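ok posting inputs for the 2-phosphoglycolic acid job
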Amino acid sequence: MSVSVRIVADAAAVGDAAAELVIAGLGVRDAPVLGVATGSSPLPVYAALERRGPAGRLGLGRAPAPAPGEYVGRPADHPESYRSVVDREVTTRLGLDPSRVAVPDGTAEDLGAACRRYEAALRAAGGVDVQILGIGSNGHIGFNEPGTPADSRTRVAELMPSTRNDNARYFPSLADVPERCITQGIGTILEARSIVLVASGEAKADAVARAVSGTPDPTCPASALQAHPRVTFVLDTAAASLLDPARHGDHALH
Ligand code: PGA
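and the output
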């Protein structure tokens, strides 16, 4: 199996193309479930969905919106908690019901139980119809860092130093970036009915090339997506710059 690749001009076009795929994927059920992601890459997707009108018209109005993780040890109202970012960037902008957003509880005394509760909430919602994903410059998806097995479930994970460095721009200093998080496992992510991964910029080109073109390998967690039947990488030209044009040329720039 191989992933579909769509290459467009820039980050804004990535947002538009991904939004179309999200809307198409959510059309399959009455009460669809949109899996959202944080980070900078999905922001143009939410902007494009917002431009398409109130959530109800998009069929998102009843959609629970599970976030793929949460930092451990930060209060839910911390400005960079997943809960806060999803409320700010997704639920408010798209008019979703915040009480339907499922985020793992990174402040729980029993973190293992919080992971199990989160997986149970996903199952109770009937699973995820469309999962939006970013990709780390080291190939991570969610916070599944290199070395994570493809059958991993929601659990507490350590952030690699390179990921903490990448995320330091959101915090006052590197020391403020959490060292641990709860993340959906790769196996959890692969249960989504369809997956839309977005990436822009040259810094993602190497991870994208390894994810799309290499054999699946835990050193690039995103390469596990090759096993999924409905996954599309929506890329700008810079993020796609290390892909082989002979293999991906038919998804050419437009
Ligand atoms: P970014 O993060 O979109 O902010 O680059 C992506 C990720 O780490 O998953």
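notes: The pocket of 2-phosphoglycolic acid is lined by residues 39-41, 134-136 (CB under 6 Å). Strands lie at 4-8, 34-35, 69-71, 130-133, 155-158, 180-183, 194-199, 231-236.
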